[in-house]
Amino acid sequence: MILHTFNKPPQAAQLALLTVGDSVLLLEDAVYAALPLPAGLVLPKGLHCHVLREDLVLRGISARIRPGFAAVDYSGFVALCLSHRQVLNWN
Amino acid sequence: LKRDNKQVGMMTEMGLQGGVTRSKQWLFLSSQGPWASAAPGACVDLLLTAAVFGEHVTLVFIGNGVLQLQTGQDAGGGGQKVLAKQFPAFELYEVNRICAEAAALQQHGLAVADLVLPVDVLDQGQIRTLLDSSDVIFQF
Lengths: 91, 140
Known about the structure:
The complex is a heterodimer of chains A (about 90) and B (about 140). With about 90 residues, chain A is an alpha/beta fold.
């Protein structure tokens, strides 16, 4: 199981390499992908989805993320990194 | 080939000690066109550094990254460097495996026989298998 971090909204070709059980953490402008559709982005099923709270707050969208995304702070970010053998940053 | 001291320092911080520790599986995904940014060059710098330290290195060109394999790239003496001209050094530096994404080659109209160096052509499932068997993954 891989933790995928995204700094920009994920692209289809990148998402094609994710598999069920992987974790996703959206950072920086990638957090907009957690908005309700059509502003947000459909992610593959079976992923554990996280969003960095600080980046939501900066953009004023903390209250707008859709169900299925868990907001985490920097401690949560570290915990996610430590609980995965592999971390892959997509940029 | 020049090596960046900062990158070597970074590699050392990451626990690389040449042959002292068990070598790890390093996977590099290069996903940008050859002239899109400095990322393709940084990818080559880092993977050659890893190879010098005796790590097991695999490079996979995905998406627009396959355009780096286009033959006939010509900087025309304009001060820029054609990255592909460094690719023959991969063998010298014992980069273990070089691959390209099948769908991306097809999308960009590239035939394997036309590329600047021989590559293993992989589908997405095979690339995912590589991800799972790697210890360290970089995407550029």
